[in-house]
Amino acid sequence: MISLCTDVAWQSLNKYGEELCGDSVAVINPDEKTTVAVLADGLGSGVKACILSTLTAKIISTMIAQNMPLAECISAMAATLPVCSVRGVAYSTFSVIRIVNNSHAEIIQFDNPAVILLRDGKHYEFPSISQTIEKKTIYISELAIQEGDAFIIVSDGVEHAGVGQAFNLDWRRADIIGFMEGLYKSEYTAHTLTSALLEQCKFFYDERPGDDATVCTIKIRRRRPVNLMIGPPQNPKDVEKMMDLFFGKAGRHIVCGGTTAGLTAEYLGKRVVADLPGKDQDPDIPPAASIEGVDLATEGVVTIGKVLEYSYKHLQGECNYYDLVRKRDGASQIAVMLFEEATDINFFVGKAVNPAHQNPRLPINFSIKMRLVRELAENLEKMGKHVKTSYF
Question: Which domains does the chain have, with CATH numbers?
Fold first, then answer.
């Protein structure tokens, strides 16, 4: 049986002039087999909308994750949300998707643009039934899912991107579907699809959004492990053990650090071949190298430090797939493997102290390496990756 996983990513654009977004996304994994994602769009914009959407997303995601009846979830939301003094209503629109066993999807929608499903890169229309709860018309769908399915949830700021702006567009659902079908590639992750759609919204708004715009993508994909080893073990006798465990793992293999690369080449009976830097090579990032049997070999601490920097930008929506693949330095190649390709990441961290790092003129020491790996692992977990770190 193919091992599948649920890849989730979301990003938002704030309405021009607003510091807070009126849309909120909540993702909960109540167990290893279930993912619940909610996109809520609060009434209006700014602080009030942010409060409305945050409460809605938290209430509904938590209750549905606990398998509480839908009617109870809606009643609780209606009783909890404050009432708008201008409009006299208290609600936030919402879309909910619950994925179970990576084989079954339950979709619940209220007043948000309809969820888009891409199957094999093409739009797939799934059936819905309506149900009235607390005077609200709720649309409910259940369907079997398959590898590669991509569910795209958007707020109405996406569906109406460009209205009243320089382009004066009214980007409708059919236009969004056509755009996503045109750019879709099977290897694209949820983050890549989300970033591409939101970038197009930003372009249509001429970078002055007339409404909050949020995209949340859920993609069912095959698990792809990536293994990264940095630094030799504290005890030289553990080199072979560390190498056996590292290469015993399925997936891609990345080796970081000159000493580690040398030990790896010796273990494999191969040579380390330095790559020639390209004309666009970032001078602050040491050149990568090649070892037969290894997917990528790079310098250690400086390169990982750059990957960490990219990870923060990635989480903030400032560094996407297209930015990274245009570069060919070691840090960018690692970032593509970890951020875009990997679902499961195994770090093998050697605790040996590098004598070169004891030079007081160099701003590198053992504690910095440990901190870089720890922070990178934390950021990868925020991206939804399954991360395991082993120390030697």
Answer: 4-222 (3.60.40.10), 225-391 (no CATH)
